[in-house]
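User: Structure tokens for this complex, please. No commentary.
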Amino acid sequence: MQERVIEKAAQLLESGACARVLGWKTGEFFYDVTPAVFTSAQQVRQEMVFSPFCGANLSKYLIAESRKEGKVGVFLKPCDSFSFVQLQKEHRILRENVYAVGVQCQGMSDIEALKALGLRGITAVQAEEDRLTVSTLYGEKTVALEEALSLRCRSCKSRALHDCDELIGDQGRDLDTDRFGEVARLEAMSPEERFAFWRSQLSKCIRCNACRNVCPACSCEKCVFDDPNSGVQNKAAADPFEEDLFHIIRAFHVAGRCTDCGECTRVCPQHIPLHLLNRKLIKDMNALYGPYQAGSDFDSKPPMLTFTQEDPEASIITEGRGIQ
Amino acid sequence: MQRIGVFVCWCGSNIAATVDVVQVAQALAKEPGVVFATDYQYMCSQAGQDLIGAAIKEHGLTGVVICSCSPRMHETTFRKTCQKAGLNPYMVEIANIREHCSWIHKDKPTATEKAVILGRAAIAKVHLNAPLTAGTSPVTKRALVIGGGIAGIQTALDIADAGFPVDIVEKKPTIGGKMTQIDKTFPTLDCAACILTPKMVDVSQNEKIDIISYAQVEKVQGFVGNFSVTIRKKARYVDESKCTGCGLCTEKCPQKKVPNEFNLGLDTRRAIYIPFAQAVPKVATIDPDYCSMLKSGKCGVCAKVCAAGAIDYKQQDELITREYGAIVVATGFEPIGMDKFDEFAYAQSPDVVTSLELERLMNAAGPTGGTLLRPSDGTHPHTLVFVQCVGSRCDGGEKGKPYCSKICCMYTAKHAMLIRDKYPDTEVYVFYIDVRTPGKNFDEFYRRAVEEYGVHYIKGMVGKVTPQDGKLKVQASDLLGGRQLHIDADMVVLAAAIEPDKSARPLATMLTASMDTNDFFTEAHPKLRPVESPTAGIFLSGACQGPKDIPETVAQAGAAASKVIGLLSKDALTCNPCTAQPDELKCNGCSSCENVCPYGAISYIDKPFRGPNRTTLIRRVAQVNPAVCQGCGACTVACPSGAMDLQGFSNKQIMAEVDAICR
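Assistant:
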């Protein structure tokens, strides 16, 4: 797969079909893979990677890249394609300036998942089908990809590319994975327990803004947290109230638009399970307004932006703790 | 810095009895920016308004806070006062210290403290107010009346009489409504058809009135003066323009076993039918649930016998979209179902009937030709028991309705009197909780039933009705006599409670008109604006607003019409300047606001912006049409980046109010 992706990227640039290609390259460490824009085939062959560490969702970069001169090529995994569609629905990506290459994916790993398997001193990882060959200071080990999956890939929602111009690998299907088990566990807690859980998590926040900056739904021209007129500008994590409020406001701002891509949790340096806030809102919306998956198609209207006569008028007063 | 004046109203004792108004004025005088604060007995009176005007001039006020009743009541009054004194009317804020404070608190210190806090919030808002100027929007000079019963008919006739075109949308094949099913009307006993059918003819012959029958409102857009309504005209499979109403098809149709809804299922009609002889429009309708041609493609008799060639089995529903300046709701009522009242054996015996069914059994055009006969065996009944308040005045409202249906006392007296008059050999008992007969000549009418016609009125309720050996065993209590009664009745008549028509609830949603817990439409003010909905441009006529008899309905219908005429006679309406405004620099162009806007006021343009390094960026940004925007604020909460803001209710103003309350 690695070779086919890199060859495609090089070919797009060599043929002149694209002026730029969005892909991934290695950062400080081999497992620290970062999004990158390539402008020549030579650069692609030297730097571009497609490894089990290419979790980063490239869709958001298209907001800026699709507005530049010439076409931009982009590689999208199935889960990334939801964000791609959602951003098109919001008129943020100029589709005609994008050449999207879908890449089928068996799930991504990350260094935390490998370390959790007891592997130490990891120097390189090679992917073959459903197995990972891990080179360590203490020798070579083989692990099943399924066991080394990153947290979000364990509840993968789809193997289907929802919009692309061509596809490397076979088209897959949406999966019926239960994504809400952890949310249900939190819902079962007493309000005090739940508050204690979220305090223990959110108090770790250092307000680095990584979650916001990586989030494809958080793509406002001017974020309310940067706006002097919003009343919440530059609110650092000075006290528990500000720590909580930042994440709660963010969850509400992306409600109905969040595709559950899981980037927020992936990039959090403090390992806060931020995706659970979004999933709770998705679960509630599904319960109230019927199943809805942001970014799964071009025609459906998001439940938070439509009004129908059948809409339930859920009351936090009569229903106490909201939707369970 | 604003120069703010605070005016605290006593509202007589409405506010002053629970709120220390002097203390409120003194406390608010110390707020930043407040240069003048006072209290007065009736701020809305001429003297109160003069006081405000004088203070604006004397103290050079730039903002005014009035602590008084709800802004719904007097905001317009005080805006006008300030405008007269040279202040922009949108520099006025009302702190509602009556409905939100004095009326709901008993303890004076608590209420006083809350009044001060509410005043403080209003002051905080005024600090951020900016002068606004209202534009105007044109008025479409056409009215829509939803419902073609006596309420809708009267409203339409009155509006048309003033020269404005009116459309009536009626869901049934004919206009006329419930009144067409009624035999005689109280308290004069003139026949309903004799007074209604001429009005129906007037409607059909009036050039200004367009009847859209067998149709329902599907979608409502727009706002006062500028509604756009989509009406679904259901396929009746008969070309209205060709059908002459000769009725031959309704005699030849082989499908004879269709329950006749006009006679409440007491007899049958054909699959193609004209509801009754005086129907308007007098056009046949095919019932698709029973027509064998439509169901299986076999038959076609009606098409063969129709000389006019009006039958069209391929007819489709038609969608009509029209513009209106005003909408009148006249959706009327329905008697409630009797399925929760097993004790009266309504389901077990055909001789237990509702009062509306009795109307049909006594009507000359009804299934018995006007002779009162028992539905079970067609014999003449000798003992009749009337049960009042079936489903009305039910505590808790689980089985029935908590309210009084208002019309049952009178029509039961009418039924009892008519039966005793026509059949002197009958015994008639009426069981009641109370007899309520307020109304001109109403009590006299009831007393005649008792005194002249010898109807047995018994205070108490019927506990059980048991069909046995062709009789109805009625077990009841006589509360005044303190005894149990057992009556062998031939017929039992139930005065079923009335409820709003089922179509009212979805219609209210489409109109954004509010309803009460019983699904009756709410009026803008129960005393001062009884025929207007709180939603501008929506008016209420008849029983959709509450139980009513015919004289009251007709009076309200006329009142609604006069309000509509007042609106339509204006060429333009002053717009609300509190409209949404996008901040283009923050707008993402994501269409969230456009999706939620109920008025279609938002569109997008591609606009060039200065980018970094002297580049130009083309961005999609929202634009609001201020003539269409109604200032509902849906867009401001939908906008993820906070680019949309409402003039006069900006996020900043609202946050300032919240901060002032939490301080």
